[in-house]
Amino acid sequence: MATILPSPPRVGMVSLGCPKNLVDSERILTKLRSDGYQMSPDYAGADVVLVNTCGFLDSAKEESLEAIGEAIAENGRVIVTGCMGKEAETIRARFPNVLAVTGAHQYEEVVGAVHDAAPMPPSAFLNLVPDSGLKLTPRHYSYLKISEGCNHRCSFCIIPSLRGDLVSRRPDAILREAEKLIAAGTRELLVISQDTSAYGVDIRHQPRPWHGAEVRAHMTDLSRELGKLGAWVRLHYVYPYPHVDQVIPLMAEGLVLPYLDIPFQHASRNVLKLMKRPANETKVLERIKNWRTIAPDIAIRSTFVVGFPGETEDDFAYLMDWLEEARLDRVGAFRFEPVEGAAANALPNHVPEEIKEERYARLMELTACISAEKLQAKVGRTLDVIIDAVGEDGATGRSKADAPEIDGEVHLRDAGHLSPGDIVAVSIEDADEHDLYGVPL
Ligand code: SF4
Questions:
Q1: Which residues of this UniProt protein bind [4Fe-4S] cluster 2 (predicted)?
Q2: For tag attachment on the chain, is the N or C end more exposed, with fewer CB atoms within 10 Å?
Q3: pTM score of the predicted model
Q4: Region 317-335: what's the mean pLDDT?
């Protein structure tokens, strides 16, 4: 006689914030699936809803509180986790009905809270987890988190107080996870952390056995080994330490994508000092030139803060000149926003909002112009493109210079026969400020 299993509880998930938070959400869901829970794509079908919050900026906190409010209104049974878990009192004051509040990376606590809120019926005995874990990103690319926390103390940032000092994962564990992801269909690994170039500092770069040899817990060694697995490897959140130079030859060899995401934040010495970040911007310009000699196709993405307290017109003009010379491929900018608990709030000489706006507009105009010129130079070339989505006739994808979500896209015509995850050679026919247009060969 067939055994009729009671249907397991269903969990809804709202994941806010950065890719690092997305990875946490994936881990939580993977654990819940392995415990037998099912996922609900909507509020109505969920027995309990998890809201994984972001507390980086005040605007992100407000967005998190709104998401909690929406989940309570729509479902009523809500567990809050993530960065805002540190502010349990604020959350409980506004939403006394939340079932539990847990902090970032407290996987066991949040999973325990789900077990309390929606207990599993006794006979869910199947292993429901696919080998790659459960993913919220499309199957063909995956975020790979290599460490947690940060040893820096940038004055505008509260991440170290939310997430603590750097804690690196073992290199063999990261590589094993990467192998599983690739076996399950991942064709692009996006390496993330708060500070990728600091990887392994906390564990003194200790080597671990890996496939009959040893691999050090060091960005260079890890990148090389990841590169050997056969997927695209993209490095994010790289702090410009001198040893970053060592990964550029790996890009020239084709082991790692010629792409570096380095949040420079500013170029003026004065502002960098106030931000408590290293101030060696002229050396950085020389290094960028050198990187381009070794790996001519390298795409450099960065973010900058304008209107930081104490930023003078001269500081901003210096940043603009620096950007003209650096000719970065992709630039994101933020107007400085005081974040509760950040040291920068106490700095003198805050910049008036209208000046922040005006500087932001000037910076965006310059960087859009540089981006358009750089993309125009790609017209007529053949580039490898990874396909993200396919329509009836066309498709969208990304070149090696484009990370998902944050950079541009390549729009393809006559590409309805392709599938997400395909990597194809594309003849580039046109370009605008952010995107390329082409046809598969
Ligand atoms: S390096 Fe990044 S995470 Fe670390 S303190 Fe600075 S801004 Fe925050």
A1: 150, 154, 157
A2: N
A3: 0.79
A4: 96
